[in-house]
């Protein structure tokens, strides 16, 4: 069926609020996702991402505000909205006793996809997620990465134009995560679909068109990764003090530069001159130090005062590892 509101954005969220008892899970949030966009919702646990997805896929009703899928209101026109969606939930929802093919076929049947078209789509999707050879195997024999791939395939057996993926890579190893993202990008370009994906892995959103950063049920920022880094990114010095006493002294001395604390790490807003000045004063009282260049991680830190991940070791950083005796270091 042609979309009667074809000029409408793929997803529109307007002042949506949802409360669970005393918890304000969503606090009047608004944004739009354009057609064929790869759009990420980034936020820590409890930010409200799943609640928002549950509203978009018509499982949960908002207390107030409007949410639209392809121009259809999720509260007043849930069936029309739902038909346009392909959904991959956080919790696996495949039938383990059925084969790969049976799972896909059942889904197509439920959505009323005619038999011939169903066969064709299933074949296409299995090829895309590289599971053709597994078609007749029971789902219980698949690895967790393969099950995720199958769920992605299943979400696209009907006429879905908009795909919602809730933490699609959670619990998967780095290699499998990369593969899942490769499928998502391919799908977007080959099937011209719109993708909204939630994640709390910051490195995963670098390749998305736009990123919406959420915390405590609010949108803190929404833009392309480049624009976010330009507007909010900053150089941060990540320090591991030698002991509690040193930590307290650093915190007191640089309170005006404090960007956040993550476990035993102290994060200070930095600039090139500051690193040398800090080392001259505290070089002997720290165990490790890393200079983090502006990244989505430092954007998140600037916006929330919290780090999204505890480990700060990756290629973007120049790390100085300090030896057992204070002051010795290797670059
Ligand atoms: N059914 C519910 N009943 C009560 N509180 C809920 C319910 N669902 C979510 N919440 C609360 O609403 C807030 C937002 O939760 P939500 O699951 O949407 O966040 P999230 O960003 O998706 O986090 P996660 O990645 O852990 O799923 C949290 O404080 C959560 O405890």
Automatic annotation (TrEMBL):
InterPro entries: AAA+_ATPase, ABC_transporter-like_ATP-bd, ABC_transporter-like_CS, P-loop_NTPase. SUPFAM superfamilies: P-loop containing nucleoside triphosphate hydrolases. Keywords: ATP-binding, Nucleotide-binding. PROSITE patterns: ABC_TRANSPORTER_1, ABC_TRANSPORTER_2. Residues 11-241 form the ABC transporter domain. One of its GO terms (molecular function) is ATP hydrolysis activity. Belongs to the ABC transporter superfamily. This is ABC-2 type transport system ATP-binding protein. It comes from Devosia limi DSM 17137.
